[in-house]
Amino acid sequence: MLGRWVVKHFVEHGYEVLNVDTRHPEEELCPTLIVDLQDLGQTYGALAGADAVVHMAAIPRAGMVPPEVTFRNNVMATYNVLEAAAGLGIKKAVIASSESSYGICFAVHPFGPQYVPMDEEHPQLPQDSYGLSKVVNELTADMFHRRSGIQVVSLRLGNVIPPEWYERFPSWIHNPEERERILWSYIDTRDAAEACRLAIETDGLGSVALNLGSNETSMAIPSRELMAARYPEVTDFRAPLEGYEALLNSEKAMKLLGWEPKYKWREQLGK
Fold first, then answer.
1. Could you write out the DSSP letters of every residue in 154-166?
2. Which residues, in sequence order, are CB contacts of 249 under 8 Å at separation 6+?
3. Between β-strands 151-157 and 92-98, what pairing exists: parallel, antiparallel or unpaired?
4. Could you report the average pLDDT of every consecutive run of 10 residues in the chain (271 residues)?
């Protein structure tokens, strides 16, 4: 869902792009190479000659396949991409982490945030293999940076929304129970794609994890009212929250990347 928007964004900004996937896309914007990223040799072959890599490939959520399959795929694919990138002398990489790494989203035993807005310092406490795979991938990124100096930006993506999904928003915007596990976050695919480009173009980041979400919630209910309705036990508010402010804090990405979310659901729906 996100990868095609990343490809489109880089092509539109004049980059020479190779799309690496398990199948050919419906819209061929650039050459595509069919690769199994769980095979290190294939991964080396795919990345040979590249200046940078944006790695969005993964099983995208818990519950799609057995948990051990999710973990093995997501961890080994990311390890292989970074192993090959480091071995080939590639200097910059972006990988897809997730807000699910905080553990709230797919928790078997539900719990709430320790504080809001939730920034990158919030503990990561996953109870599922998907969230755990993202934590491991961030640690893998740290290791490769220490070993080779490769810059790796791990984007802790909020709920990814392509443009055609905005029509779904009216079905949930008045119900606090909807989307509570993701703290009512969202990020437009076009905004996420721009963040990927900026993360490649920015120097001196080392290995860093950045939350990436809109600066507003996906709801028509003020943020404090959402918290009172679904997480009344949370008393640590680290921002005034006087309106519809995001509860997934992306200020670090804005500061380090010079990034700003452009696409808002009310504007997209004309409301």
1. EEEE--EE-GGGG
2. 117, 118, 119, 120, 211, 239
3. parallel
4. 96 98 93 97 98 95 91 97 98 98 97 98 98 98 98 98 96 97 98 98 98 98 98 97 98 98 94 57
Taking alpha carbons only, the member of 264, 209, 224 closest to residue 116 is 224
Residue of 246, 258, 242, 123 whose CA lies nearest to 198 = 258
* Domains in the chain, CATH or no CATH each: 1-270 (3.40.50.720)
Angle ∠(167,171,177) on CA atoms, nearest 5: 135
For the question of whether the overall pTM of this predicted structure is more than 0.90, the answer is yes
How far is it, in rounded angstroms, from Cα 183 to Cα 159?
10
Residue 232: cis peptide before it, omega within 30 degrees of 0: no
Report which DSSP code applies to 120: T
Neighbours of 173 (CB within 10 A): 19
**Token pair of 66, please?**
């057995």
The structure tokens listed for 65 are 């396949």
